[in-house]
């Protein structure tokens, strides 16, 4: 058992700043850091099916099946990591006390700086950012219908094929994104770290409050 835990701890990566839902779950004792490092699922999200990564990156490894609705924030994981998909009511029931996901106070259009800790920094295609629609329903789990249909930002390395540039396609420890300028109130942001040479992305989610 101890050896298995040690092996798991070596995998992949997670955002360490700002606090993600996974970080909150670690603080609550619901998840280990290694589990938040490994919230991986198909990288073609919000597509529904496995298959080639879109042009001009079709020489990257094909995507495995992307996360199902209701399990998006955990990268499709349905084990203990499902807790990051919970609504406030679901989490309150699990904890036996009133709970609300902590909100990160942000301004519309501000630049948000993100810091990752990687334990296995894979050959990276880039990062994709999605956000909930206006009028989304916080009392429901996040589904594709709860999200804006297109990402609000993508940061992809242009080099192809990936296997000729593996030394250049490095995971970014720090990167920045400009948040949408037209949002108000509570929203959920989904950040995907997309790997070039596997079928997966690593999913991290944040609750923000646009002031």
From TrEMBL:
* Pfam families in the cross-refs: LPMO_10
Q: Which domain of life is it from?
A: Bacteria
Coiled-coil positions are: none
Instruction: List, for all copies, the residue spans of the domain called Chitin-binding type-4.
Output: 12-208
Alphabetical list of InterPro entries matching this protein: Cellulose/chitin-bd_N (IPR004302), GlcNAc_Chitin_IntDeg (IPR051024), Ig_E-set (IPR014756)
Keyword flag Cell cycle: no
Q: Which CDD domains match?
A: LPMO_AA10
Q: What keywords are assigned to this protein?
A: Monooxygenase, Oxidoreductase, Signal
Gene Ontology MF, one: monooxygenase activity
PANTHER family found in the cross-reference section: CHITIN-BINDING TYPE-4 DOMAIN-CONTAINING PROTEIN, GLCNAC-BINDING PROTEIN A
Any idea what this protein is called?
Answer: Lytic polysaccharide monooxygenase
Question: Which organism is this entry from?
Answer: Pseudomonas khorasanensis
Give the source lineage, highest ranks first: Bacteria, Pseudomonadati, Pseudomonadota, Gammaproteobacteria, Pseudomonadales
């Amino acid at each position: 058992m101890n050896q298995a835990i040690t092996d798991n701890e070596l995998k992949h990566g997670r955002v360490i700043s700002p606090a993600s839902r996974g970080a909150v779950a670690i603080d609550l004792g619901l998840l280990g850091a290694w589990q938040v490092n490994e919230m991986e699922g198909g990288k073609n999200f919000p597509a529904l099916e496995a298959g080639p990564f879109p042009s001009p990156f079709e020489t990257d490894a094909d995507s495995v099946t992307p996360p199902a609705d209701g399990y998006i924030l955990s990268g499709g994981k349905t084990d203990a990591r499902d807790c990051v998909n919970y609504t406030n009511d679901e989490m309150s029931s699990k904890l036996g006390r009133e709970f609300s996901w902590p909100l990160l106070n942000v301004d519309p259009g501000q630049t948000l700086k993100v810091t990752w800790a990687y334990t296995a920094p894979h050959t990276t295609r880039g990062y994709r950012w999605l956000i909930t629609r206006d009028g989304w329903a916080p009392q429901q789990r996040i589904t594709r219908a709860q999200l804006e249909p297109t990402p609000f930002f993508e940061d992809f390395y242009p080099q192809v094929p990936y296997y000729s540039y593996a030394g250049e396609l490095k995971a970014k420890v720090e990167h920045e994104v400009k948040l949408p300028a037209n949002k108000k109130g509570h929203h959920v942001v989904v950040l995907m770290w997309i790997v070039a040479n596997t079928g997966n992305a690593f999913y991290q989610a944040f609750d923000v409050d646009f002031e």
